[in-house]
Amino acid sequence: MINIEIIGNENESNTNLLRRFTKRVRSSGVIKKVRAIRYKLRDASKYTKKKQALRSIKRKTEIEKLIRLGKLPDNRSGEKQNIDA
Description:
The protein is mainly alpha-helical. The chain is built from 3 helices and no strands. It is elongated.
């Protein structure tokens, strides 16, 4: 990161000092850069990707097993079942 330092002159008012500081910050592009990366997430490592994939495979096999045993309804077709019927 860039540190911006402004030293006030003897007879300079606080508002003028603040205006000079904001002008320097704006021209340096610090705020623009920080706003651009504000919500950026880091790339997941190979280990975490593999872990997530294994977890989803395990969950999928558990659900298929429960469907075969009849403990879960088979609604994989995407159609909603009518409960009132």
